[in-house]
Amino acid sequence: MSRFSERLYRAAQEIWIKSHRHPFLTELREGTLDPGRFIYYLKQDYVYLIDYAKMFAIGSIKARDLETMVKFAELLHSTLNVEMELHRQYAERFGVTREQLEQTRPSPTTVAYTKYMLDAAAQGSLAEVVAVLLPCMWSYREIGTAFMKFPGALDHPLYREWILMYGSEEFGALADWCIGLMDRLAEGLPEQELAQLEERFVAASKLEYLFWDMAYRQEEWPV
Ligand SMILES: Cc1ncc(CO)c(N)n1
Question: Could you list the residue ranges forming a coiled coil in this record (predicted)?
Answer without folding.
Answer: none
